[in-house]
Design a protein that fits this description.
By secondary structure, this protein is of the alpha+beta class. The chain has helices at residues 13-17, 21-30, 45-51, 61-68, 83-91, 104-108, 123-133, and strands spanning 4-11, 34-41, 73-81, 117-119. It starts with a strand and ends with a helix. The protein binds adenosine-3',5'-cyclic-monophosphate.
Length: 136
Amino acid sequence: MNNIEQTLSIIKPDAVERNLVEDIKNIFIKNKFKIKDTKKIHITKEEASEFYKVHQSKPFYSDLCAYLSSGPIVVMILEGENAVLANRRLMGATNPKDAKDNTIRKLYGISIDKNSVHGSDSIDNAKKEIKFFFKN
Ligand code: CMP
């Protein structure tokens, strides 16, 4: 049975800064995701705070928002079979030191903050996050 979904992916400032955008996009393409839309942007701390609002009670919230707005990011709509879960598997554990071999965070992540990529964690959040960056 086909279960085609869309999810939101962000290539974070640490990976953009190290010129990893094409490498990471190629990993998505090799893993059968279609990149339906993509753009490079630089968001404000206020926008990052809105995007990561679900984490507002966490002790790392302020640093997280400062980090996401610290430099250019690349946002993408990924589409594919079970895309939400498939993308989370391909990214690997939040903390790169816990991520399995061949996951994006194992390959490129530096730390729990500079973990190179973000991906929506549910279909509901994917819809919200796609709308956040791609409003039309
Ligand atoms: P991301 O998938 O973008 O979602 C929230 C981010 O918070 C997460 O990746 C991490 O980069 C960051 N973060 C920082 N500290 C923590 C922590 N202790 N637990 C989970 N996420 C954290």
